[in-house]
Design goal:
alpha+beta, Glutaredoxin, four-stranded mixed beta sheet, 48% helix, 11% strand, binds FE2/S2 (inorganic) cluster
């Protein structure tokens, strides 16, 4: 019951955003960003709702969601770890850092830990090449990361538990 009310509130918040758009044409990406911010991810029901509200085909919404890597159709962990696999990071051994994270968390790229605390993704260049290799956790950037730093970074967030400042 509580969850339903919660979902209703989220849809109401999204509708408020869409209704306030000065122009609905060309507002799809902006709306999807807002929807992902509100819901955390973009399941089919949310995509259909956006399609209905913007009066565009659901297939168009789905096409955009699957085209851009910053949209996700699956829920992510409370702490979203992104490992940069762009050229500058790759040549500075970001693969080893990624391997260490998969070992530490026992998950692969694109997965969440069973407790929902962490999710892991690999990205292309995040624009901080001077700090390569780079990882980010909920947008906070860690530069010149070595495989042996991984455990500390993970533990730092585990100790934060539910108190991240997202
Ligand atoms: S390649 Fe990793 S930040 Fe640019």
């Amino acid at each position: 019951m509580h969850e339903l009310k919660n979902a209703d509130q989220k849809y109401a918040q999204l509708d408020e955003f869409i209704d306030a758009l000065p122009e609905k044409d060309g507002a799809l990406i902006m709306t999807l960003h807002k929807a992902q911010e509100i819901f955390g991810y973009l399941p089919a029901e949310v995509q259909n709702h956006v399609a209905h509200k913007l009066q565009i085909p659901a297939s168009k919404v789905y096409g955009v969601v699957t085209f851009y890597s910053f949209f996700t159709t699956k829920p992510k962990g409370r702490f979203k770890i992104n490992v940069c696999m762009g050229t500058a990071c790759f040549v500075r051994d970001s693969q080893k850092v990624l391997d260490e994270i998969t070992k530490e968390l026992q998950i692969k790229v694109g997965e969440n830990t069973p407790d929902g605390l962490f999710s892991l993704d690999a990205l292309r260049c995040v624009g901080a090449c001077g700090l390569a290799p780079v990882i980010s956790v909920n947008g906070k950037v860690y530069g010149r990361v070595k495989p042996e730093d991984v455990r500390n970074i993970v533990e730092e967030h585990m100790s934060m538990g539910g108190n991240d400042d997202e």
